[in-house]
Fold these 3 entries.
Entry 1:
Amino acid sequence: MKHVINNKETNIDWQQGELIERHDSGCSVYHVTGIDDELAEYTCVGDYQSGELFDVTEIELADETL
C-alpha cells in the first residue's frame, strides 16, 4: 500500500496483527505492522473489510509518530 511519509512516497507491505475491535458492519480493526522498500519498520491501526486491508491510520516509525 502506498503512503506519503515525510513528503516521500513509499510502499509499505502491511501484515495483520492483533484484533482491536470488531464492528457489526463486518469491519474489523487490527494492530498492523509493516516494512517499506528500504526495510524501515512501521506500525499502524488498520481497518479490514472481508479480510482485506482498506485503510490505515496512526502510522508510526520506530518511536516517532508520523
Note: The CA atoms of residues 60 and 66 lie 6 Å apart.
Entry 2:
Amino acid sequence: MDKLSRAGYMMTIDDAIAFWTRRREAEAALGEKLTREESEKLLQSMKLGKELTLEDLREIMASKKVLIVKDKNAPKGDE
C-alpha cells in the first residue's frame, strides 16, 4: 500500500455541512447525482478541508477510536 496515496479530506462539521448542502443544491439544479470527480472538484472549489495521504491519516488517528466509512466501490486492500 502506497503511504502517499490520497486518503480523503479532513474538515470541520460546519464545513462538511456546507459542502453537503452545496452538493445537494447542485444535484437538484442538474437533476442528477454528481460523480465522485465532480464532488471533489466542488469541495476543492469551496476551499474546504485538508487533503490527507494515508500516512497523514495514520499519524492523526494513532491511538484514537474512530469510525471509518468506506465507499462501497472502494478497492479491497490490506488494512
Note: The chain has a mean pLDDT of 80.
Entry 3:
Amino acid sequence: MKPVPLEVTMMKRIGELNAENARLKAEVKRLTAFTTRTIIPNELLQAEVERLTKGGDLLLNMLIWTDEYSSDRCNDAKEKWLTAKTGKQPWQR
C-alpha cells in the first residue's frame, strides 16, 4: 500500500471538520429558533397563572371576611381552591 501524503490527510480532515461545523451551526440555529418559540409563551403563561392565583387568593380572603364563609358551600369552595393551588384537580383531594 502506498503511503498517503500528510497534506492529503490533513485536507481530508479539514473537509470533515468543515462539514461537522456546518452541521453544528445548523443545530444551534434550530435550537435557538425552538427556544425563542417556547420560552416566550411559557413566560406569558406563567404570568397568567400568577395573576389568576392572586385573584383566587383575593376571592378566598373576601369570603373569609364575610358571613358567607361559614357556610358549607363556601367551605367546599375553599377546599377546592386550596387543592387546585397544589396542582391537583379538586376531585383528587
Note: The CA atoms of residues 18 and 64 lie 68 Å apart.
